[in-house]
Amino acid sequence: MSNRVLIFDTTLRDGEQALAASLTVKEKLQIALALERLGVDVMEVGFPVSSPGDFHSVQTIAKTIKNSRVCALSRALEKDIDAAAQALSVAEQFRIHTFISTSTIHVESKLKRTFDDVLDMAVGAVKYARRFTDDVEFSCEDAGRTPIDNLCRMVEAAIKAGARTINIPDTVGYTVPSEFGGIIQTLFNRVPNIDQAVISVHCHDDLGLSVANSIAAVEMGARQIECTINGIGERAGNCSLEEIAMILATRKGLLDLDTGINAKEIHRTSSLVSQLCNMPIQANKAIVGTNAFSHSSGIHQDGMLKAKNTYEIMTPESIGLNRNNLNMTSRSGRHVIKHRMEEMGYQPGDYDMDSLYEQFLTLADKKGQVFDYDLEALVYMESQAQDDDQYKLQHLMVHSDSTEGVATATVRIAVDGKDFTEAATGNGPVDAAYNAIARATQRQINITNYKLGAKGEGQNALGQVDITAKYNEQMFHGVGLATDVVEASAQALVHVMNLVYRADKVADFKQQIHKERELGGV
Ligand code: KIV
Ligand code: ZN
């Protein structure tokens, strides 16, 4: 048996489906490109039948990604498989993933069928998917709670029908490692054609055991792990990719298993996913938490000074976390910035050097010293700005009298290329800025969540504002980053306004198509 474990990333499917605000196509593409660079073998990027937006994003990613296999999800239904195949057909290499529940609880209460009906549906779906590609994956949803005889029958039938990957999900995160490893071992012992498929696992983290269960499974012969960056996903989330990759790398001597993951990309990919998905990472999270490589106790610090391996089983550099002591100021030339970006793993095509340098100089004038995270923040903000942005914040001035609890803000904002200036008061500087923006744009946004944080360390950090807003029953997520937290707040609101504007345009377009269809039908 090969000792290569395939990494199947489902951040953009299982992870994305659990977010409060969906990602835009551009954001999904950014994550897909980061995953490709990270070296995932397969990326599951959506569920095309679920919405035209999902279909479009799967298609866009499928067109762009070359070095990882792109996969889309479908229920065991022909219309789902058709949608997945159509969205993926532009890819160089693709996989169709079809699934149906196999546990008695799901079969009887959710599907209201018999197990034999479900078995027939699974076989039919796999055969149907094979018309489009040789690479078909079949999942037995809720396998962790499926009676083992039924699970063996289902796996054997799906392989016979043509599935080349069989996924065994612990959908509700119920099993414990010895039990889950035992299920995999039984499948290897009892399913006669098991050597014709790769056995995959997909564990949820409801009891905090998703990573342990996945490791138990590979010890028993599973050779694909489904996981997500930072472990995002349904409820308590999925098995986290960075933990799996670093367990297999750090404990290679014990487990003797390899992945194709370029661990140096972990830190950057994790930050990008956290930022775009508006999902902060807990400080003590393994591998990517801010405390994962910091040593607090005096005894530990003393040990570290004497020999790093006293308390460090892997280095921060191994996940691409390079602590930078380089002091960048407005006197730093372009080559310094370019060199620093390269060291952080960015390639020239990832950003526009002219624009980055211009913004760097502006920031350096404001802050004095510029750090790595500032450069990354500038690149991130630039990636969020779109050429067709309807609203652009040009100027913001705020006067606040905190003793009286009133503030006044004046904003100049470009709306479709035309400048509008307005002033308004509020109960604080952010409130006043938001009221002035509402006046200038004639648009009121219902903010459901406002979060102020910091990007970077200490007094030199940038203010980061994340807001979530509800519009026409849809959730939108806007981000602002600036040295001034009121400016960051205004940027976040303008970001949401541009997203809402685009969503309105899409809705108008759909309505127009509907009308044209109706007229055509008369
Ligand atoms: O958790 C699960 O069972 C799933 C399947 C669709 C693979 O996400
Ligand atoms: Zn899942």
UniProtKB/TrEMBL annotation:
Cofactor section: Mn(2+)
Reactions catalysed, as given in the entry: 3-methyl-2-oxobutanoate + acetyl-CoA + H2O = (2S)-2-isopropylmalate + CoA + H(+)
Highest taxon of source: Bacteria
SMART domains per the UniProt record, alphabetical: LeuA_dimer
UniProt EC number: 2.3.3.13
Keywords per UniProt: Acyltransferase, Amino-acid biosynthesis, Branched-chain amino acid biosynthesis, Cytoplasm, Leucine biosynthesis, Manganese, Metal-binding, Transferase
Acyltransferase as UniProt keyword: yes
Domain Pyruvate carboxyltransferase span(s) in chain numbering: 5-267
Keyword Metal-binding found: yes
InterPro entries on file: 2-IPM_HCS-like, 2-isopropylmalate_synth_dimer, AIPM/Hcit_synth_CS, Aldolase_TIM, LeuA/HCS_post-cat, LeuA_allosteric_dom_sf, LeuA_bact_synth, PYR_CT
PROSITE patterns, alphabetized: AIPM_HOMOCIT_SYNTH_1, AIPM_HOMOCIT_SYNTH_2, PYR_CT
Pathway membership: Amino-acid biosynthesis; L-leucine biosynthesis; L-leucine from 3-methyl-2-oxobutanoate: step 1/4
Residues reported to bind Mn(2+): 14, 202, 204, 238
Region (Regulatory domain), start-end ranges: 392-522
Top-tier EC class: transferase
Family matches, as Gene3D superfamilies: 1.10.238.260, 3.30.160.270, Aldolase class I
GO MF, any single term: 2-isopropylmalate synthase activity
UniProt subunit comment: Homodimer.
Task performed by this protein: Catalyzes the condensation of the acetyl group of acetyl-CoA with 3-methyl-2-oxobutanoate (2-ketoisovalerate) to form 3-carboxy-3-hydroxy-4-methylpentanoate (2-isopropylmalate).
Family that this chain belongs to: Belongs to the alpha-IPM synthase/homocitrate synthase family. LeuA type 1 subfamily.
Full protein name: 2-isopropylmalate synthase
Naturally occurring in which organism (per UniProt): Shewanella metallivivens
